[in-house]
Design goal:
CATH topology of the largest domain: Rossmann fold
Low-confidence stretches: none
Radius of gyration: 30 Å
Number of domains: 2
Helix content: 40-55%
CATH architecture of the largest domain: 3-Layer(aba) Sandwich
Structural class: alpha/beta
Shape: elongated
Largest sheet: 7 strands, mixed
Number of helices: 20
Number of strands: 20
Strand order of the largest sheet: 13-12-11-10-9-8-15
Mean pLDDT: 93
Strand content: 15-25%
CATH superfamily of the largest domain: HUPs
């Protein structure tokens, strides 16, 4: 539960229809197994104590009475456990029979939730609609809360709140979410039809995405009667539009376990202006559980900006290029520009900026020669990057100019009294600013606009020279993180033909570098990732910090869980500290960014998604990181 992680399970016990003794044994066995795994909420299918297919046996007093015996046995099994069980059972209340979920914790029945939507004639044959239920009911000799509007909330961790959807059709989920439930336990009961898995998965994902929530779905499986249908034991656990864990239909898997991050869901609800807890009809039931650290098993993407699905990747990359190029197209048209200027270095950022500019010019119907690509070799430029820049421009059919900057920078050094032998920040930034001056003035001369090359990762870290490469007339890469950029350029390489593809792949293989320090034996001497840290880690930090507001301790925890096979704890913490300090300290550079298209949900533009003062301090965040350091 620490950091808001709640380990949950969708359980699918093997049963025998109408054998409540055997079924109770199966439920208790699975409950104990899930509790041993650290599960705090275990959800069983609809009518799991009797079997969903008991039919007219639901009319018999013997079956209904034996259910109460089973519930009492489950209560006893939970007395010493810190885990909640949600069990499907037929319960008689005031002479009527209801299809219910019984919520049990530490030997206590917290509440009973009846099914409110009957989907077929047979359901209405045996059970009363739950909307007609009383507020309380006598169950197992006790008066307990009864109704469809119960919201169960843990006193020690308020974000751990859940509701029950008996029937698992999802229709109650929106209303329950608006009553304050962070997650819904869906007790399924339908027989399986071909194609159901996809429909269930997509339906649940749509609900959890729209209502910023989690959903635990389980359905009857092995042991149900197959007189008129088969039962697949399909389970799905979804969070904010994504399946975290799932069992295949007819797989025989009895437990599907993962962790829902209720703290992050709560944070996202606070941020999401389209979500409102507008319903006050829910009745809160408070329960107690001990706070324990949850062992993480859920998988976090090492590249959270990259789609998991290959087909989705290609569609996404095409969309990103379309967004950037159409944004630039509009700007070129609006200012009546005759063309565009792009500073090309043979590196990744300028390559994508040039590819986008070519697409924009093509959309406008202009000659590609109206694009002036400028190579400005300096003290650290290598033959490889210079050659790649020239070959790229030739392959794309744009105008190419080479304007060396070394002599101009040396004159500038003399003007400000700086020694060429001191390779400090002045030495580096003077080159970046000289380059920007050249391309800015060239754009003015040619009636063009300067297209910026800096990416989202560099802007987050402040890895840009103020009023150097930090500045342009339109920044097409500002919404694209470095890891995503690599995939987009690779996508362009695969689609661009043999000649262009070979050039782009060599650019991808070139170490990321500003090339501002003298080369060593003709090779790049300044590797960006050796200085600021691996972009894979930084993009991971950027995503979770900006998307979810993840606190340092929790961010370190999930980074360790995700990258433990690649980086040591000391390495991860070193670069996390560096990211945190730089993100706050370099905000002043982002406060005056040029215009550029918003690409995804994470944006650093002061006019877009990030409203942050330039003088905010990182003290609180760094202090939390220092507390982690003491434990290593």
């Amino acid at each position: 539960m620490k950091d808001g992680f709640i380990k949950v399970a969708a359980a699918c016990p093997k049963i025998r229809v109408a054998d409540t003794v055997y079924n109770t044994d199966s439920i208790i066995s699975l409950y104990n197994k899930s509790a041993d795994l650290g599960v705090k909420l275990t959800v069983f299918p609809e009518l799991s104590i009797t079997g969903r297919t008991a039919g007219d046996l639901f009319y018999t007093e013997t079956l209904v009475s034996s259910v109460i015996t089973g519930i009492n046995r489950i209560r006893a099994a939970t007395e010493l456990s810190g885990s909640v069980a949600v069990v499907g059972a037929p319960i008689s209340v005031c002479g009527k029979l209801y299809n219910t979920a019984v919520v049990i914790s530490r030997g206590e029945i917290l509440g009973v939730v009846p099914r409110s939507i009957m989907t077929g004639e047979e359901d209405g044959r045996w059970f009363t609609d739950g909307d007609e239920a009383h507020l309380f009911a006598e169950v197992c000799g006790e008066t307990v809360p009864f109704g469809t509007n119960l919201i169960f909330r843990m006193s020690e961790l308020g974000e751990f709140s859940f509701a029950i959807d008996v029937g698992a059709n999802g229709r109650n989920h929106p209303w329950l979410s608006e009553c304050g439930a962070i997650m819904t336990a869906g007790l399924g009961g339908n027989c399986y039809l071909a194609g159901n898995a996809k429909k269930v998965r997509e339906g649940i994902n749509a609900l959890t995405s729209r209502y910023v929530s989690g959903y635990i779905y389980t359905s009857p499986g092995e042991g149900e009667s197959t007189t008129d249908g088969s039962y697949a034991g399909h389970t799905v656990i979804s969070e904010k539009g994504k399946v975290l864990s799932e069992s295949r239909p007819f797989s025989g898997e009895e437990l599907t376990v993962t962790e829902l991050d209720v703290r992050t869901l709560s944070e996202l609800r606070r941020r999401d202006r389209s979500f409102r807890q507008i319903n006050d009809e829910g009745r809160e039931i408070i329960f107690d559980l001990p706070i324990e650290k949850t062992t993480l098993t859920r998988v976090y993407s090492k590249s959270p900006f990259i789609p998991d699905n290959l087909d989705e990747m290609e569609e996404r990359f095409g969309e990103i290029i379309a967004i950037a190029s159409n944004g630039l197209k509009k700007r070129l048209h609006h200012v009546s520009a005759k063309g565009a200027v792009v500073a090309v270095s043979g590196g990744l950022d300028s390559t994508l900026a040039l590819l986008v500019t070519v697409r924009a010019v093509d959309l406008l119907g202009l000659d590609r020669k109206s694009i002036i690509a400028v190579s400005m070799p300096g003290f650290g430029t290598t033959a490889r990057t210079k050659s790649n820049a020239e070959k790229l421009c030739d392959a794309l059919g744009v105008s190419y100019r080479e304007i060396p900057i070394s002599e101009a920078v040396k004159i500038h050094f003399r003007d400000i009294g700086h020694s060429e032998d001191i390779h400090d920040v002045t030495y580096e930034n003077s080159q970046a600013r000289e380059r920007t001056q050249i391309v800015m003035d060239l754009a003015n001369k040619e009636g063009a606009i300067l297209v910026g090359t800096g990416d989202l990762s560099e802007l987050a870290l402040g890895w840009a020279t103020y009023n150097g490469d930090h500045m342009s007339m339109y920044g097409v890469n500002g919404g694209i993180p470095k890891t995503l950029m690599r995939h987009i350029v690779s996508f362009c390489a695969d689609k661009g033909g043999e000649v262009l593809g070979d050039i782009l792949r060599d650019i991808l293989d070139t170490p990321v570098s500003p090339e501002l320090l003298p080369a060593e034996n003709g090779e790049i001497s300044q590797c960006t990732e050796n200085i600021v840290g691996p972009y894979r880690l930084h993009d991971f930090f950027i995503y979770h910090f900006l998307r979810y507001g993840t606190a340092p301790k929790k961010l370190f925890r999930i980074a360790m869980h995700t990258f433990k096979d690649e980086y040591s704890a000391a390495e991860i913490l070193k670069w996390q500290r560096n990211f945190t300090w730089r993100f706050f300290a370099q905000q002043f550079k982002r406060s005056c960014l040029p215009d550029g298209p918003m690409i995804g949900s994470i944006c650093l533009s002061p006019r877009g998604a990030l409203r942050m003062p330039s003088d905010a301090l990182s003290t609180v965040w760094i202090k939390e990181i220092e507390e982690i350091e003491k434990t290593l």
